[in-house]
Design brief:
The chain has 7 domains: 176 residues, no CATH class; 96 residues, Immunoglobulins (Immunoglobulin-like), CATH 2.60.40; 112 residues, Sandwich (Immunoglobulin-like); 124 residues, Immunoglobulins (Immunoglobulin-like, Sandwich); 142 residues, Four Helix Bundle (Hemerythrin (Met), subunit A), CATH 1.20.120; 137 residues, Up-down Bundle (Four Helix Bundle (Hemerythrin (Met), subunit A)), CATH 1.20.120; 147 residues, no CATH class. Helix content is 47%, strand content 15%. The protein has 28 helices and 31 strands. The strands form 7 sheets. Strands 2, 4, 5, 8, 9 and 10 form a 6-stranded mixed beta sheet that branches. Strands 22, 24, 25, 27, 28 and 29 form a 6-stranded mixed beta sheet that branches. Strands 12-11-14-18-17 form a 5-stranded antiparallel beta sheet, with no helix packed on it.
């Protein structure tokens, strides 16, 4: 087999074909590269916008690789099919049609061998010739044009440009760069979180600040998540943050900060920004050193014979002289430990701060021990620290050292009232007890105030010492002793007096404590007394038993009670103990009242007995003289002299009583007419308080408590000015030597010598005290007159006269802090007592009770602040308490009124006061431009003033006259200034005198500007002055808001009335509350202080002025409602008064028993009507009691004149009425007249310049006619 010779054309064709194949391959490769680049860019773009997850990116890469592989296979197929020699020859023919099919034929047979050509039926020569011809024809043609080299280079250029563009974008944009890396499965995030401090350990209770930075993309929802540690399933607490809350920001980062204030337990936290989350970090807690256990073994003093006692309470109350062994267990061993002790016992220099000392603790691992003697009150703290610096939390405990209490002694027999004849043998039995042991006890008696004799004396100490040696006896802590007193031995007479008392002493080492009972008395009666039992006084027999002088017996009881109180005071003075001036004032008042009652008894006896009882009456007058002398001695501080004078007065009373008994026994009939007067005088001495009196007493005690608290404020303010505002100061250095009197202990007795007393009298009126209290009721009777209501001396107690100083003497020192604490504690106890008394009053609302509770909390807060030495805190709490008490006194005074109309009148007056106060506040408030506000307050321009604070006039005869109605100021004190003479706001008036010129002079802000550390006055700083003024105005606004609440509370109390007669009043009050929107007004007033404090003077002035107008409108409405309610009631009252006047006149014209019956029937009907109207309750009940004693009952048919009351005078053909009947009726008349004045004249006075309303004209004229015709007794 042979082949055709090699043709030049074929060589050219082969070269062209080879080149074409290379170009086609390069073109396919660049196209494939472009496709791969496009897929990559698409993946980058998808991740750039969608931030694909790793799985999504892997999937995208897989899809891209698959697409690239398919595309490569397609290109390879195309390359294989399109790159053959025949296809290349055909391409040449299409490009060069002039060559025809010679190229394809030449190429087809050019590769064949000679045999193959021949086999195809073609001659070799023809093939060779065709090759030469084709070569010749194509020699001038550019067959290379069929090679797409340019297109290949263009595609390659596009590929390169795309790569360069991508690289350039990546270099310019970090996000594209990150997207490209992430498309290649890099884990570089678009955003990163860096959190600090990571895992951390902090002290318990300390704050932790967490900071995290979001870098990269910052458009994320940022949050911090926390949860308790140790609970993988716990719920995360989330806190969201916005970009605006970033503490630091940059081009590609935001920094956030969060604070966890107090870490108490371990916790976990993490930060998150969108889907990006930080690792979970842990905050561990470093717990402080902790007390696991405190055990204290207290060993009492040896004389108590008490065994040691172990307690786990770190606060101790122990007997003086005890020792304490402390055993303290900690949770980890300390490096150092000690007790820091602050002594609280009284010091010689009260101005010096309490001394502080440190007692080291013995350390044995976690156990700490120490031994301390306990001799006085103290506070102690346990201080310990570990080697790592961990310390015990701050702690403070109190040790109260209780002094050994005096023994207790009281009589079991005889009772308080003992009346025996001169030959009697009196059994006297006492019981004595002591907390730790008795040494001596006995009974002492005396006759006629002379030498004392021991009736019984028991020496416990000697017996105890004898048996103590044998170890068989512990000290006696209680005993019962008795012995008979043979009166026959002393040859007594009826005019003699026997007194006795018991004493006891304990086993206190050194000077034993001694207690003495009250002086008790044995009354000597006649050896023989005639008794008779009568069912019918008018029946046969010897007549009724002889009457007794009941009032004189009551006077003797009261005098004995006063004598014991005076003896107690004298013993305190002898021991140079502090005397409660309030108790002395009460004692003086009580003794003066007994003297007055004694004089009344003597006058009554002289009226009835004429000159038959000269000696007896003279004894009573001598007793009165000694009582008045005792009053002077008590007031002058001569207590021993007062005791002697009171003893003489008591002796004379007893002697007078006994002589009167003899006279009664001789001629009982002479005393029949005097018996009724005597009983009434005795009832007057024993009469209990009415509801009105109880309410008045509570109001008085509230005011007195506020006054006492004001005194403490003054002491605190002065102390802070002199000693600075620090916690410890306030007292001058000579505090220990000051003669300033301080209150007696709460029980009114010597703490070392308790005296059993009769039950305490809260109002300080001893004439109301029960006198038959037994010594055995000691738990209820151990209270002196100064217990309640007299816990603090009056305001005047601190002046130089009361202090015994003279003109020119140095001013007395201020009270020491211990004295202030004692006074404040007394006020706390008094407040608690008032709270109990307040709860028993009628018509008292929840607001009043809540205010009393609030006041007590403030009083207790002031007490606690004083205990801590915080004078500023005590002053603030004291001011709050006083403000509440001042408002409460007004509220209780109004709520305690029995009638709804009276409460309506009180609400009207208070509403007018609130309106006036708000006007003054608006006038004093600077306007928006800082200028002081101006409000018209010209009273002459008002057509009607609903009250203006004017009070109803006093009843006739008490100092007010009818012509005072023309005075526009009403019942004010003193002559008011005309409007043109009143200082205008800002006119330079004295701030101390005008509280609105200086708001800080009011309650709760009384402290003047304090000096700063450089000694500059508080007024040197205008801003400080402005703040002080704003604070003063704010406090005034707060008081006004509370006054508004009082008015609303009074009105709401009227709505709760169940009396059918109050329906009209209730309807009017409901309408006023609804139309005037007082609750809304009070709400705005409560926001006024905040406006003032924030400097919103314009808004505050508008609010004050608006509320003033509203309150003035409400006061006008209340005034109108009161008049409408008062008019029909006045008609009824004046009708009752007219009938009472008629009864009073008929009382002197009774001629027979029938007239007496008719008079009582009319009086009974009238009294019943008065009871329905709740008028003159106390005096009405007293008149009813007198009528019942005289024989009257509600059933007039059974009325029967009793001989001892109604005496028929046959000579003058008239009946003499019982003594006091006319006075009782006259008192009721005057009470009704006072009620009319309160309803009628009080409202007219509040109308100021308004003429008398038409509906009142007739009533006023009729009332003046009655007053003009009224018969009054001549003044003595």
């Amino acid at each position: 087999m042979s082949t055709i010779h090699e043709s030049p054309f074929l060589r050219r064709f082969d070269a062209l074909w080879a080149r074409l194949r290379r170009v086609q391959f390069g073109q396919s490769l660049t196209v494939w590269g472009l496709a791969v680049l496009a897929v990559w860019i698409a993946l980058i773009a998808a991740d750039f916008w969608l931030e694909l997850s790793r799985g999504a990116r892997i999937a995208g890469i897989g899809i891209g690789i698959g697409l690239a592989g398919v595309f490569a296979w397609q290109l390879w197929r195309q390359f294989r099919r399109g790159g053959t020699r025949p296809r290349t020859a055909a391409e040449i023919e299409r490009s060069f049609p002039q060559l025809g099919q010679s190229i394809r034929t030449t190429v087809q047979y050019g590769e064949a061998s000679t045999d193959q050509i021949q086999a195809a039926g073609v001659r070799s020569g023809l093939v060779s010739a065709l090759e030469d011809e084709t070569h010749s024809r194509s020699r001038g043609l550019h067959l290379d044009s069929i090679v797409p080299a340019r297109r290949m280079w263009l595609i390659a250029g596009g590929l390169a440009a795309s790569v360069v563009l991508l690289l350039g974008t990546m270099s310019l944009n970090w996000e594209v760069r990150v997207a490209a890396a992430r498309s290649l499965l890099s884990e570089t995030p678009y955003s990163q979180l860096r959190v600090a401090p990571g895992n951390i350990k902090v002290d318990q209770g300390k704050p932790v600040e967490i900071e995290w930075t979001l870098s990269g993309r910052t458009d994320r929802d940022v949050k911090l998540l926390t949860r308790p540690a140790g609970d993988p399933q716990g719920v995360w607490s989330q806190r969201d943050f916005s970009a605006s809350q970033a503490t630091e920001r940059g081009d590609r980062f935001l920094t956030f900060t969060a604070r966890i204030d107090s870490v108490k337990k371990p916790m976990e936290y993490r930060a998150a920004a969108g889907d990006l989350e930080s690792p979970i970090y842990r905050i561990d807690v470093r717990y402080p050193l902790a007390l696991k256990e405190v055990k204290i073994e207290v060993t009492p003093p040896a004389y108590t014979n008490h065994p040691p006692k172990t307690t786990e309470d770190p606060n101790l109350t122990v007997v003086e002289g005890s020792s304490a062994r402390f055993a303290i267990t900690l949770d980890q061993p300390p490096r150092t430990a000690s007790l820091v002790i602050r002594d609280l016992a009284r010091r010689d220099d009260e101005a010096a701060p309490p001394s502080t000392r440190t007692v080291p603790l013995e350390i044995a691992g976690t156990e700490l021990t120490a031994l301390l003697p306990l001799t006085g009150d103290m506070k102690y703290s346990i201080i310990a620290e570990t080697s790592e610096g961990q310390r015990l939390p701050e702690n403070s405990y109190r040790v109260r050292v209780r002094p050994d209490q005096p023994p207790e002694v009281y009589f079991e027999e005889p009772g308080d009232e003992l009346e025996v004849h001169t030959l009697a043998e009196v059994l006297m039995r006492i019981r004595v007890r002591d907390d730790f042991g008795l040494s001596r006890a006995g009974i002492i008696f005396e006759v006629n105030n002379e030498e004392e004799y021991p009736l019984l004396s028991e020496d416990f100490a000697t017996a105890a010492e004898e048996l103590q040696k044998l170890g068989k006896l512990t000290p006696d802590t209680q005993a019962a002793l008795e012995k008979v007193l043979p009166l026959e031995f002393f040859e007594l007479k009826m005019t003699d007096s026997v007194a006795y008392y018991a004493f006891a002493e304990d086993n206190y080492p050194g000077t034993p404590h001694r207690s003495v009972t009250d002086l008790r008395f044995v009354d000597i009666r006649p050896f023989r007394i005639r008794y008779a039992v009568r069912d019918d006084p008018d029946g046969d027999g010897d007549g009724p038993p002889p009457p007794k002088i009941a009032s004189l017996g009551e006077l003797i009881k009261r005098q004995r009670f006063n004598l014991n109180r005076s003896m107690t005071v004298a013993m305190r003075a002898e021991r140079k103990e502090k005397i409660d001036l309030g108790a002395i004032d009460s004692l003086v008042k009580s003794e003066a009242e007994i003297a007055t009652a004694t004089r009344q008894l003597a006058d009554s006896l002289s009226v009835f007995m004429n000159d038959d009882l000269i000696d007896e009456i003279q004894l009573l007058l001598q007793a009165e003289a000694h009582m008045l002398a005792a009053v002077d001695s008590l007031a002058a501080g001569k207590y021993d002299t007062a005791v002697l004078q009171e003893r003489d007065a008591l002796k004379e009373l007893i002697e007078g009583r006994n002589k009167l008994r003899e006279e009664i026994q001789k001629n009982p009939s002479k005393f029949r007419g005097f018996a009724a007067a005597d009983r009434r005088l005795a009832q007057k001495l024993r009469r209990p308080k009415s509801d009105k009196e109880e309410a008045e007493e509570v109001v008085r005690r509230i005011k007195q408590l506020a006054s006492a608290q004001e005194e403490i404020e003054a002491e605190l303010t002065g102390g802070m000015q002199e000693g600075g505002t620090g916690e410890g100061g306030g007292e001058p250095k000579d505090a220990a030597d000051s003669p300033m009197p301080t209150p007696m202990p709460k029980d009114g007795t010597d703490p070392k010598t308790p005296q059993p007393m009769a039950e305490g009298d809260k109002d300080g009126a001893p004439m109301e005290k029960p006198s038959d209290k037994s010594e055995g009721d000691k738990s209820e009777g151990d209270k002196s007159e100064g217990d309640k209501g007299e816990a603090n001396p009056p305001k005047g107690a601190g002046n130089k006269d009361a202090m015994g100083g003279k003109e020119g003497d140095a001013p007395p020192r201020r009270m020491s802090r211990e004295e202030l604490r004692d006074r404040q504690l007394d006020n706390v106890l008094e407040g608690q007592d008032i709270d109990k008394a307040l709860g028993k009053l009628k018509n008292i609302t929840d607001l009043a009770k809540g205010r009393m509770t609030e006041a007590n909390k403030s009083l207790e807060g002031a007490n606690s602040s004083l205990d801590r030495g915080d004078s500023a805190g005590a002053l603030e709490q004291s001011g709050q308490a006083r403000n509440v008490l001042d408002e409460l006194a007004k509220q209780v005074d109004a709520l305690a009124k029995a009638e709804a109309a009276e409460r309506l009148n009180a609400a009207r007056e208070l509403a007018a006061e609130v309106a006036e106060a708000q006007k003054e506040l608006a006038a004093q408030t600077p306007g928006p431009n800082g200028q002081q506000g101006e409000m018209k307050n010209d009273k002459s321009e008002k057509k009607e003033n609903p009250g203006g604070g004017a009070k109803a006039p006093m009843p006739m005869g008490s100092g007010s006259e009818p012509q005072e109605m023309d005075d526009p100021q009403g019942g004010g004190a003193g002559e008011p200034k005309p409007d043109d003479q009143k200082p205008m706001p800002g006119s330079g008036s004295d701030p101390a005198k005008d509280p609105m010129e200086n708001p800080m002079a009011g309650g709760g802000g009384k402290m003047p500007p304090m000096k700063d550390r450089e000694g500059q006055g508080g007024g040197a700083d205008p801003e400080a002055d402005q703040e002080a003024r704003a604070e003063g105005l704010a406090k005034e606004a707060e008081r006004n808001a509370q006054a508004g609440k009082t008015v609303v509370d009074i009105l709401q109390s009227i709505l709760k009335s169940t009396d059918p007669a109050d329906k009209d009043v209730i309807a009017k009050v409901e309408a006023i509350l609804k139309e005037n929107k007082l609750d809304e007004t009070i709400g705005r007033m409560e926001g006024l202080p905040q406006q003032l404090r924030e400097g919103q003077y314009g808004d505050a002035q508008v609010t004050a002025a608006d509320s003033a107008d509203r309150w003035e409108a409400a006061a006008n409405r209340l005034s109108t409602a009161f008049r409408e309610v008062a008019a029909p009631r006045l008609e009824e009252l004046m009708d009752i008064e007219r009938k009472l006047q008629s009864l009073q006149e008929k009382l002197n014209e009774l001629q027979n028993e029938r007239d007496v019956v008719e008079w009582h029937v009319d009086a009974g009907k009238l009294l019943q009507k008065m009871e329905d109207m709740k008028i003159a309750e106390g005096l009405r009940e007293k008149l009813e009691e007198m009528m019942k004693e005289a024989g009257w009952s509600e059933d007039a048919e059974h009325f029967k004149v009793k001989g001892e009351g109604w005496i028929i005078d046959r000579n003058r053909e008239r009946i003499d009425v019982p003594v006091g009947y006319g006075m009782a009726v006259r008192n009721v008349v005057q009470e009704v007249q006072a009620h009319i004045q309160e309803l009628l004249l009080g409202d007219l006075l509040s109308s100021k310049d308004e003429v008398t309303p038409p509906q009142y004209s007739e009533l006023v004229e009729r009332y003046y006619e009655v007053l003009a015709k009224q018969k009054r007794p001549e003044p003595k």
